[in-house]
């Protein structure tokens, strides 16, 4: 789960990371109010769950109240398309108004969960401001990396080594220690999976300040981090994925037209491959999980059909923990309850498969049965209504 820049800054500030003063605005009037309170000039920043805002016009320096009002008016209620969003962009419902900082140098600082070492890794560079992926590709030697041993934690020695590696001097070394400690503790104590400060700047006065902040969290840990869960902004998320999560379904929206209801992430991936191989395009990834009740199957249908592009549904269940008869009941129930008219291909295998197939066959509904995954994928591709030329 991602959060907004202003939320990440507030969270990191609680852990001692220095950030500029700012205020959150949902209207141009509020933006002007904060600009007046903070003192001009200010920087107005669109709050969306994506980076690359600067280059897309979502971060602007303002010298007058009129500029603040005009910029906020231009951003609020619109969608911001950046290099990191899709073509639709993300909606801007709030802007962050921040006291302008005099920048002498931009550094990069990131903390990620390194899967290889299974530890938190700190990545830092003297060359901040540009995207880390570009930096890693163009000038990998400009990146400093440090893997933290969880039994020891981040040591002062480690912090100093990074600070010296970045060419910091005097009081900056201790300030870097404070920034690193704050980021590390925030990461560890809030179950984050990513903290990125890009840029971390050296001000004209020589101090370190986090000018941007990005954080992502482990969704599987949100149950024990209510203060983090409260920061969620569903407006920034795919509404289709949002509804699915409420029913305990893992759903990822895609841009094809074959809706998928599958059990198990591996089978779901394989089914999407088979659809592609048969010449079709999946509309989604959906894992209904184990022990799917008929109600859950109905919820899965609702989720998949909320996507207006879906023209056929493929149900593929290999029942181990699941029961084919339950899934079949769910399919029949969904077909009737939701008043379906589009073709539905059903492939069942595993526990209670005979009962399941009997329910499908005797339903009197135009359900298409398939025995194997390949047959099911091919049947789904064939069953698509012909597009008008
Ligand atoms: P991003 O493009 O979404 O990563 O947004 P950032 O918050 O990183 O802002 C983009 C760029 O705007 C930064 O790299 C800075 O160069 C610039 N910027 C942001 N805040 C200030 C500020 O207070 N003063 C100045 N001079 N530049 C700023
Ligand atoms: Mn940035």
List keywords for this structure.
alpha+beta; 389 residues; four-stranded antiparallel beta sheet; six-stranded antiparallel beta sheet; binds manganese (II) ion; elongated
Give a verbal description of the structure.
This protein has helices at 5-14, 28-38, 65-75, 132-138, 156-165, 171-189, 226-229, 239-246, 265-277, 294-305, 324-337, 353-361, 373-383; strands at 22-25, 42-46, 59-62, 79-80, 90-91, 95-99, 103-114, 119-125, 143-147, 192-203, 208-210, 214-217, 250-253, 258-262, 284-287, 312-319, 344-350, 367-370. The chain is an alpha+beta fold and 389 residues long. Strands 7, 8, 9, 10, 11 and 12 form a 6-stranded antiparallel beta sheet that branches. Strands 1-6-2-3 form a 4-stranded antiparallel beta sheet, with helices on one face. A 4-stranded parallel beta sheet has the order 14-16-17-18, with helices on both faces. Strand 17, helix 12 (353-361) and strand 18 form a beta-alpha-beta unit. Helix 5 (156-165) crosses helix 6. The model has no long low-confidence stretch (mean pLDDT 94). The structure holds guanosine-5'-diphosphate and manganese (II) ion (MN).
**Count of DSSP E strands?**
18
Share of β-strand residues: 15-25%
Count of helical regions: 13
The overall pLDDT average reads 94
Q: Identify the bound ligands.
A: guanosine-5'-diphosphate, manganese (II) ion
Distance between the termini: 42 Å
Estimated helix fraction: 25-40%
Q: What overall geometry do the principal axes of the alpha carbons give?
A: elongated
Major sheet: size, sense and barrel closure? Answer: 6 strands, antiparallel
Output the structural class: alpha+beta
Q: Which stretches are low in confidence, meaning pLDDT under 50 for 5 or more residues running? A: none
Question: Radius of gyration, rounded?
Answer: 26 Å
């Amino acid at each position: 789960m991602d959060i907004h820049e202003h939320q990440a800054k507030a969270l990191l500030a609680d852990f001692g990371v220095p950030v500029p003063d700012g205020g959150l605005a949902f209207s141009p009037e509020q933006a002007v109010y904060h600009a007046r309170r903070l003192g001009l000039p200010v920087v107005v920043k669109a709050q969306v769950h994506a980076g690359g805002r600067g280059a897309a016009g979502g971060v602007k320096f303002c010298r007058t109240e009129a500029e603040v009002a005009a910029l906020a008016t231009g951003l609020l209620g619109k969608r911001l398309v950046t290099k990191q969003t899709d073509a639709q962009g993300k909606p801007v419902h709030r802007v962050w108004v921040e006291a302008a900082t005099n920048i002498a140098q931009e550094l990069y600082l990131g903390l990620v969960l390194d899967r290889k070492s299974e530890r938190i890794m700190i990545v830092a560079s003297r060359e901040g401001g540009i995207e880390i992926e570009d930096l890693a590709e163009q000038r990998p030697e400009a990146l400093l990396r440090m893997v933290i041993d969880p039994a020891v934690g981040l040591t002062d020695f480690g912090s100093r080594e990074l600070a010296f590696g970045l060419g910091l001097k005097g009081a900056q070394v201790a300030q870097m220690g404070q920034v690193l400690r704050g980021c590390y503790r925030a990461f560890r104590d809030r179950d984050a999976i990513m903290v990125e400060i890009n840029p971390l700047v050296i001000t004209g006065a020589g101090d370190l300040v986090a000018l941007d902040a990005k954080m992502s969290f482990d969704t599987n840990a949100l149950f024990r981090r209510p203060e983090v869960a409260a920061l969620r902004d569903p407006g920034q998320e795919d509404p289709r994925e949002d509804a699915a999560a409420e029913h305990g379904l893992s759903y990822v929206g895609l841009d094809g037209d074959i809706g998928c209801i599958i059990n198990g992430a591996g089978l779901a991936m394989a089914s999407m491959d088979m659809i592609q191989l048969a010449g079709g395009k999946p509309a989604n990834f959906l894992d209904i999980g184990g022990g799917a009740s008929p109600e859950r199957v109905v919820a899965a249908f609702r989720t998949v059909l909320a996507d207006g592009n879906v023209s056929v549904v493929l149900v593929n269940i290999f029942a181990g923990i699941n029961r084919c008869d339950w899934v079949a009941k769910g399919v029949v129930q969904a077909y009737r309850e939701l008043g379906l008219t589009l073709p539905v291909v059903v492939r069942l295998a595993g526990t209670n498969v005979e009962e399941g197939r009997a329910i499908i066959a005797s339903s009197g509904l135009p359900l298409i049965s398939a025995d194997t995954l390949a047959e099911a994928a091919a049947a789904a591709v064939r069953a698509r209504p012909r597009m008008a030329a």
